[in-house]
């Protein structure tokens, strides 16, 4: 009966595995984030890099990228032909990026106030000093976008333009599982137990948002291994996924309780370092980019930003794809990055 | 068909076992608190054992009844080698808990010894308890191990299915083994992990293959009836497949946790009492190894020096051990109670997952049957597998979105972390007499460093602002002079 089938399928799979293994062995190290950059400033474990330019920047205002504290900014430069950063450089921008580092238990006490009013503020000031400009363009991604939005509300005089990508703002959305689950989680217990919330712990939670993805991913690896390029893409992504820094406890606590559970940013009741965060104080131009298939930050959490800010020059950009596709997909390289460049150029 | 029977019975039994544990642990804790541990311990243990035996017996009988009433739903599942073995499963559970209970009781006995002068029978109750256990346990175990009595699934009813399961399992084992070993030779960490995950995931695929292929055969040969699902569906194998996907919630992990805590408890218990004694007993030998010249001196004299040291240290060792043991006892009991509740909640969560998954599987199979009737080619198992995972994901997400699941998951996470905190407290108690910096002390130090850094930052900012003001003033002066 099925015996014949299984032998045939196993033999086919065996042949594929042998070829795939051969491809694997021939691959050297799996490298990500290879665009040259230079460490220009550091505060504690947080570093500021400036990407190397061979020609003079054609944009007057430098761009400062603030990625999420969860996972690493390497996603923006995952491989040379799928690099959001390379695209920005290619358009003539002077690009800086914040590396939030790897917090340990010793960093448990770092708060949102520290991340916004210390680290981010110091980085913004450095870029302003270094480039001799009054204001910088701030580009915030995911959680980094939320921090950038808060920063822009607190220090609008230092920001020329704000670009947010797949950024959660309205946490009352019923769409995302993460938003649903957060309502029933005791975040105090998590922070009090771990101190620094392990990246692996968070990664397990993210994996459950698409519970069968892991099974499918590895089941299709046998086929993917036949093509060296596809295999490399897969491995680079794996490397990025597994590189998840732990989270400084106090910052995580406030982010999850004040935002995910109480939606204070939109309600106007969020306090950072004793100051109330008023989104109406965001008066600079804002470009808000959301992804239609985003299962981590659903569009309903992102889109409302434009309704709450004080700026009259704001635009919503709809990207057809998922949370990660915004940075690595072909469409991202061909359409999104040029659109961001064009929008910024018009306001430079 | 009612696929809930197996999972419902499974959940019910797990809950009862956990309740029995919780109740007994509570009684023991109370007994220690009010100083009647020695007198009441035997009774509590006897009650626990009786309940445990009864629960298991009922569960097995219930499963047997299911098997006969449902006309073969579980008929193929009695495989003693590769299929689900109900008997072994519960035997493992019982052994595991019995071992743990023994250690807890033993620990209580030790704690009671410290107050032995007030309890004349404290010295012999453990022996009595052990005899009783032997008398009761043996018949219970024999009963459980008798396949005619306890095995609810008669593999003889469907030898072809058993043969298929055995063969395919064997093929898979032989097929994957060499590939798994190959992964060890990869140098890059990312590659190594990806390879390992791929070979591990193949087990899930194989489980799917095993279940799908016989159904597919029936469908293509037009011998499929609604009853066919009942006779082919293998709940335990389905559960294994789910566990391999959601390995974070495998019941094996809870069993392992019990085992680990039990071992840890044993180690910790002996640790404070024996460590110093062992160290001192080994001291002459160690010293000779470290300082060989001593061997040329007067060995007897050296030994007497060590013996004197040992005599001097002994009272100190004995001073702290009893006090810490009773504190440990409290912490241990509290933790085990939490662990039992965790086990119950985990069982509930798994019940949601399994029933949801089994219903989706049944729907999927029915839809596949309809497709085959319409002439759709489903011979590519890889594609069928992907269709199933897509459907399953949709159903899982709908479940995850429900209030009941989200709440339960939150409770489970909270409880798991509470156990972790409790465990840390226990480690602190064990290590407190040693010159080791505790985590809480390190945390205090980190807080101080953080506060100082913050102060420094504020001062730097203030200094920077003052500097800026000065610069502005001096440049204004210069401008005025010019």
N-end to C-end Cα span of chain A: 70 Å
What oligomeric arrangement do these chains adopt? heterodimer
Number of helices of chain B: 14
Find the count of extended strands of chain B (DSSP E, 2+ residues): 0
The share of residues in helices of chain B is: over 70%
Radius of gyration of chain B over all CA atoms, rounded = 32 Å
Q: Largest interface, by Cβ-Cβ below 8 angstroms: which chains and how many residues each?
A: A-B, 59 and 62 residues
**Topology of chain B as a string of helices (H) and strands (E):** HHHHHHHHHHHHHH
Main sheet of chain A? 8 strands, mixed
Straight-line N-to-C gap of chain B: 98 Å
Mean pLDDT of chain B: 64
Number of helical runs of chain A? 16
> Which stretches of chain A are low in confidence, meaning pLDDT under 50 for 5 or more residues running?
none
Question: What would your notes on this structure say?
Answer:
The complex is a heterodimer of chains A (348) and B (482). Chain A is α/β, with parallel strands linked by helices. Chain A has 16 helices and 14 strands. Chain A has helices at residues 2-26, 84-90, 112-131, 143-154, 177-182, 187-194, 199-207, 213-219, 221-224, 228-242, 249-261, 264-267, 299-302, 305-308, 325-328, 330-346; strands at residues 37-43, 46-51, 63-66, 77-79, 82-83, 95-99, 136-141, 159-165, 196-197, 247-248, 271-272, 275-276, 286-291, 314-319. In chain A, the strands form four sheets. Chain A has an eight-stranded mixed sheet, with helices on both faces. A two-stranded antiparallel sheet of chain A has the order 4-5. A two-stranded antiparallel ribbon of chain A has the order 9-10. Chain A starts with a helix and ends with a helix. The model of chain A has no long low-confidence stretch (mean pLDDT 92). With 482 residues, chain B is mainly α. Chain B has helices spanning 4-33, 37-69, 86-113, 125-145, 147-150, 159-183, 189-220, 226-232, 235-245, 251-290, 299-373, 381-401, 403-431, 439-481. The radius of gyration of chain B is 32 Å and the shape is flat. Mean pLDDT of chain B is 64; it is low at 66-86, 111-130, 132-158, 248-256, 286-306 and 308-322. Chains A and B meet through helix 1, helix 5, helix 6, helix 8 and helix 10 of A and helix 6, helix 7, helix 12, helix 13 and helix 14 of B.
């Amino acid at each position: 009966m099925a015996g014949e089938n299984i032998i045939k399928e196993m033999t086919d799979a065996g042949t594929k595995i042998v070829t795939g293994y051969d491809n694997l062995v021939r691959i050297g190290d799996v490298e990500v984030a290879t665009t040259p950059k230079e460490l220009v400033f550091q505060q504690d474990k947080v570093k500021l890099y400036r990407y190397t330019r061979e020609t003079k920047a054609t944009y007057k205002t430098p761009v400062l990228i603030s990625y999420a504290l969860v996972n690493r900014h390497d996603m923006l430069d995952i491989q040379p032909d799928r690099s959001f950063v390379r695209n920005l450089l290619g358009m003539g921008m002077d690009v800086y990026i914040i590396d939030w580092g790897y917090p340990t238990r010793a960093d448990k006490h770092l708060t949102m106030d520290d991340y916004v009013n210390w680290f981010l503020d110091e980085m913004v000031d450095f870029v302003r000093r270094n480039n001799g400009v009054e204001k910088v363009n701030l580009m915030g991604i995911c959680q980094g976008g939320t921090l950038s939005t808060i920063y822009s509300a607190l220090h609008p005089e230092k920001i020329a333009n704000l670009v947010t990508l797949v950024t959660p703002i309205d946490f009352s959305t019923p769409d995302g599982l993460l938003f649903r689950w957060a309502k029933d989680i005791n975040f105090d217990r998590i922070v009090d137990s771990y101190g620094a919330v392990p990246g692996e712990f968070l990664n397990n939670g993210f994996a459950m948002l698409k519970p069968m993805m892991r099974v499918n991913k590895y089941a299709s690896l046998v086929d993917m291994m036949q093509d060296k390029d596809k295999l490399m893409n897969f491995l680079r992504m794996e490397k990025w996924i597994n590189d998840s820094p732990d989270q400084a406890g106090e910052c995580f606590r406030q982010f999850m309780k004040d935002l995910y559970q109480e939606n204070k940013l939109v309600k106007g009741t969020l306090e950072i370092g004793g100051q109330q965060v008023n989104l109406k104080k965001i008066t600079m131009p804002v470009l808000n980019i959301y992804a239609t298939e985003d299962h981590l930050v659903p569009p309903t959490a992102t889109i409302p930003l434009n309704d709450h800010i004080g700026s009259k020059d704001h635009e919503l950009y709809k990207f057809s794809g998922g949370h990660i596709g915004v940075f690595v997909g072909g469409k991202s390289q061909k359409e999104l990055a040029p659109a961001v460049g064009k929008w910024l150029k018009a306001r430079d | 068909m009612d696929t809930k029977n197996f999972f419902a019975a499974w959940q019910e039994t797990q809950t009862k076992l956990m309740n029995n544990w919780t109740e007994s642990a509570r009684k023991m804790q109370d007994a220690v608190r009010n100083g009647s541990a020695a007198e009441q311990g035997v009774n509590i243990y006897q009650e626990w054992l009786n309940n445990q035996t009864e629960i298991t017996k009922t569960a097995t009988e219930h499963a047997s009844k299911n098997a006969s009433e449902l006309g073969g739903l579980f008929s193929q599942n009695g495989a003693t080698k590769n299929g689900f073995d109900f008997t072994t499963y519960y035997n493992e559970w019982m052994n595991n808990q019995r071992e743990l209970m023994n250690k807890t009781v033993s620990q209580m006995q030790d704690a009671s010894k410290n107050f032995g002068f007030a309890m004349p029978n404290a010295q012999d109750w453990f022996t009595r308890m052990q005899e009783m256990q032997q008398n009761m346990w043996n018949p219970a175990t024999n009963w459980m191990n008798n396949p005619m009595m306890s095995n609810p699934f008669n593999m003889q009813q469907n030898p072809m299915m058993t043969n298929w399961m055995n063969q395919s399992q064997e093929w898979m084992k032989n097929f994957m083994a060499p590939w798994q070993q190959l992964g060890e030779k990869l140098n890059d960490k990312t590659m190594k992990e990806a390879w390992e995950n791929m070979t591990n995931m193949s087990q899930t695929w194989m489980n799917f293959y095993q279940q799908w292929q016989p159904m597919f055969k029936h469908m293509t040969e037009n011998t499929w009836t609604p009853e066919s699902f009942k006779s082919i569906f293998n709940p335990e194998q389905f559960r294994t497949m789910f566990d391999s996907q959601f390995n974070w919630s495998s019941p094996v992990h809870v069993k392992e946790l019990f085992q680990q805590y039990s071992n840890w408890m044993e180690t910790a218990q002996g640790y404070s009492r024996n460590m110093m004694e062992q160290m001192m007993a080994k001291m002459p030998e160690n010293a000779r190894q470290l300082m060989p010249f001593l061997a040329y001196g007067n060995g007897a004299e050296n030994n007497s020096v060590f013996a004197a040291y040992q005599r001097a240290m002994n009272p100190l060792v004995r001073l702290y051990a009893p006090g810490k043991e009773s504190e440990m006892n409290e912490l241990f009991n509290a933790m085990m109670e939490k662990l039992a509740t965790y086990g119950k909640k985990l069982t509930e969560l798994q019940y949601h997952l399994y029933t949801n998954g089994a219903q989706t599987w049944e729907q999927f199979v029915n839809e596949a049957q309809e497709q085959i009737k319409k002439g759709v080619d489903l011979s590519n198992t890889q594609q069928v597998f992907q269709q199933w995972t897509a459907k399953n994901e949709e159903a899982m997400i709908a479940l995850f979105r429900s209030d009941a699941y989200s709440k339960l998951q939150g409770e489970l996470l909270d409880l798991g972390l509470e156990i972790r905190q409790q465990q840390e407290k226990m480690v602190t108690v064990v290590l407190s007499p040693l010159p080791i910096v505790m985590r809480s002390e390190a945390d205090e130090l980190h807080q101080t460093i953080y506060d100082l850094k913050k102060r420094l930052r504020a001062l730097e900012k203030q200094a920077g602002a003052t500097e800026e003001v000065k610069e502005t003033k001096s440049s204004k002066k210069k401008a005025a002079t010019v």
